[in-house]
Amino acid sequence: MKRLLVVLGAVCLVVLLLGAMHDLAPASVELHAAVATNLTASGVEHPVTAVLLNFRGYDTLLEIAVLLLALIVILAIGMDATISAEATVDVRPLVNPVLQTLAKLVVPLMILVAVYLLWAGSFRPGGAFQAGAVLAAAAVLLHLAELLPSWQSPGVKLRLGLAGGFLIFLAVGAVSLMQGALLEYPLEQAGALILLIESGLTVSLGLILAGLFLLLSRDDGETS
Amino acid sequence: MSLEFAFDLLLALAMVWSAWRSLYATRLDRAIVMFIAFGLLMALAWTRLLAPDIGLAEAAIGAGLTGALLLDAYGALQRKKI
Questions:
Q1: pLDDT computed for residue B13 by the predictor
Q2: ipTM of this model?
Q3: How many other C-beta atoms are found inside a 10 Å radius of the C-beta of residue A96?
């Protein structure tokens, strides 16, 4: 009986949702046309990159800030785990040689793909987030193949890399704020500035996303 | 029925099926594998919706990184049990 009621409620919800979807009002603001007409002024040729890094650059700035904050929180609460990691004796099982060889072959290609995605972002689907995710996947693969140890305590270089993308973005924002509005690039330098920000973002995002894995996996010894 | 429509229908059915299997799997490792499969299908769906940007990010973050994290957590849980 109870089950029947639940199923009935779910069916009612589905019908209501389908009905709501059917008479959805047309979008009140025609953003597609606005982006298309201003695309030449953005410095890039791909509309998604133009929106993410020029028209709505503020959102992307906050996005990378949130990701960095998440990683800092992990660093802060994960500090007591270092003691247990040091206490464990190194009793790793045999390393899989096939996996290691494959990782060594694939990782350079992944870095190449990441650079391509970053470069392609200005005129076709791609961009900093995708490139950063591929970089992070490469780092995770290296860690799983036991070629890259987990990050016990991040040094100065790693910390700089983690925060670098956000700092570059913030610096560009501050300079543009002094000259006019926040993140409003001058027309001639818009393309170069976006590429600079995206390069910084790629490195930082790759390190942050990899850090979510490599900093957490130090818990209870090495990941085998 | 055109070929594209058939593909979309198959994709939608496979997504619902894999989501169901990942929620109702009795073994945790199977649930994780089904979740990764769901992420890859989701990436395909985004590409079919003409959003290859989101598809790329979904494949890399949703299926790849999240899947690796979940498998790592599963391994840690198994080691704790022993």
A1: 95
A2: 0.77
A3: 13
Contact across the interface for B65 and A136, Cβ inside 8 Å:
yes
Nearest residue on chain A to B73, alpha-carbon basis: A217
- Asked if A48 lies within 8 A of B61 by C-beta distance, the reply is no
Q: How buried is residue A165: exposed, middle or buried, by Cβ count under 10 Å (0-12/13-18/19+)? A: buried
Please name the member of B56, B68, B80 whose beta carbon is closest to the beta carbon of A125: B56
pLDDT digits (tens, 9 = 90+) for A168-202: 998 888 888 888 777 778 777 888 888 888 999 99
Instruction: Tell whether B77 lies on the interface with A, counting CB pairs under 8 A.
Output: no
**For chain B, what is the domain count?**
1
Confidence tier at A89 by pLDDT (50, 70, 90): very low
Contacts of A60 in chain B (CB under 8 A): none
Q: Residue B63 sits in which domain range?
A: 3-81
Give the residue from A153, A170, A175 showing the smallest Cα distance to A204: A170
- Where in chain A are the domains? 33-85+96-218
Q: Outline where A152-189 has alpha helix (H).
A: 156-179
N- to C-terminal Cα separation, chain B: 54
Residue A18 CA to residue A101 CA, distance in Å, equals 51
- Taking CA atoms, what residue in A is nearest to B52? A125
Q: Does A125 touch chain B (CB under 8 A)?
A: yes
Which residues in chain B are contacts of A212 at CB distance < 8 A?
65, 69
Question: pLDDT digit string (tens) for A16-52?
Answer: 999 988 887 777 777 888 888 888 778 788 888 888 8
**CB-count exposure of residue A106 (10 Å: 0-12, 13-18, 19+):** middle
Our measurement of the distance from residue B42's CA atom to the centroid of its chain's CA atoms, rounded to an integer in Å, reads: 7
Interface test with B, best of A49, A111, A129 (most B CBs within 10 A): A129
Task: Write the DSSP symbol of residue A51.
Answer: I
